[in-house]
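Reopening: Amine oxidase domain-containing protein still failing for me.
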Amino acid sequence: MMMASSPGCCLTRNFVPASAIAVSRLSSSAPRSCSSSFSCSSVSSSVISISTVFQLIRRKTSCSIVISGFSRRRRRNSVTRPGRPGFEASGVRRKTKVRAIVEERESDIAATATNRGGLQGNEDADIVVIGSGVGGLCCGSMLARYGEDVLVLESHDNPGGAAHSFEIKGYHFDSGPSLFSGLSSRGPQANPLAQVFDALGEAVDCVQYDSWMVHIPEGQFLSRIGATEFYKDLQHVAGSNAVADWRKLQEAVLPLSAAAMALPPAAIRTDWGALVTVLARYGPQLLKTFVQMGPHGAMRASKLLGPFSELVDSLGVQNSFVRNWIDLLSFLLSGLKADGTLAAEIVYMFGEWYKPGCVLEYPCGGTGAIVDALVRGLKKHGGRLALNTHVDSIVVEEGRAVGVKLRDGRFVQARKAVVSNASTWDTVSLLPPDAVPKELQTRAKDTPQCDSFMHLHLGIDAKDLPSDLEIHHIVVNNWSQGVDAPQNVVLISVPSVLDPSLAPAGKHVLHAYTPGSEPYSLWKDLDRQSAAYLQLKAERSEVLWRAVEKALGPGFSREKCEVKLVGTPLTHERFLRRNRGTYGPAIRAGKGLFPMPSTPVDGLFCCGDSVFPGIGIPAVAASGLVTANSLASVSQHSKLLDAIGV
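Support: Ran it again with your exact input. Result attached.
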């Protein structure tokens, strides 16, 4: 069994995509770096539109561990939550369908794990992918879809990386991501993961809902997405001044979100082929979108490449609750407050959360259902997955990555390329010291890291718990400390509220975590078997227990929990093979760029949360998609876009 320990917070990191930079260079008037603000006087409107949309795509392809991208379109395979206002009451249908989905999923796991005992058969491939996280699986399955011979190598006995699921005593736990949307979306505006599913001919059934519970110093309230619902929440919690500031903010940023919906993530590639797949295909619509924004909208658009706080300041938003709420949303999206989060991320979030018809989704069967669908797609198109196959190093000959060496000493040849789904720091550690270019050394040394996590997984009796328990709870202990302060914010997910098949009858599964705010420095010198480690583990998990007690009420009892699992930064580091247990790069808006998939080592590419577009399920799915597109021919890429209707 693989202990859960994966991201639990910020999905997106502030980044300025190199794709935007590449496209910007098509114009002699375009700045060489997107880290500076764009202005209409210095850059043609067409270049502004392309560059800004690439920034917005960051949020489109981003999510927090809690937030996974939103789309208003729905598929027929979505299952609605019964008994909620505005939703169909279809309890019997939902329950039956969820059970059927899980039974199917269990058979899928058996079918897709044919190489669970390690690599068997051919020890070479066109493309070797290191790691089966969502980014690696998206990249590998899309390359297989493009006709390449792909081999994905995974060190652990379960695929999925930070998104894997695990089971104990009949309780099915998600290890990380918990709040999703857009999984059943389609078309140009779809979540990038949904676009991968479309390309592979796969889908994931989902339960839909529209709210989560918030516990803050002012009290608690049910936060609802939609065009007008949050105004009611604000009036109740913070008064009319807060409502006025929020309305001002919403009216300013909602028009900007249209630009994010004009370019499908599936169209992006990182070479000059973008002239065909982006500019020729979508350029006119992008230009039209920005023209329709008018002069004031264009001026505000220039702020999308900077911190969201600058846009908020320019609007004169001063209400303390609204500013705190903005910091909280920013932190959950990027792991940084509004002064470090790219404005484009929040603008896109506004467009998706505060328009009519928005819904949240939970995949039937948990995050493991997402992983299973990607593995099915990989195998359907001829790709291979080898579990329990640890890559010890990347083999470089004459400056080119030619394959990998496994822990057991075998060499696996990569005829065309090696793709690393590991972090920047872990990828560098896989390279021979004398083969690491200075650029990569500098990147690994200078890229700041997010902190790590404390995790609490529980299997509990639902008997004395509220019958109307929400799936998600956000607990903020003290606004004055800052939402990024250690142990100040706790996120809780109880997915069995929507999918009872995840737990034995009458039980619930629960995952609570501190979202990327646990300092690794407290843990780095401890022996996991020592009394000091066990004591610190108990002390640092107490905030999680207290948050669960607040969310679940007096009917919850620690003593009655049937499963109790506490994870630490060392757990995160050990099971996910993450340097210092980090959530990922902490690149502040305007201070740096996420690198693109290619590296200074010929034949070596990267995907995952250390490259464009950043952290989070949709973001890493997009990274895998972009990497695969960049390795495919422009003709293949164009045919794919035609096939999925974008």
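DSSP finds 18 helices and 19 strands in the chain. If you still see a failure, please send the error message rather than a screenshot.
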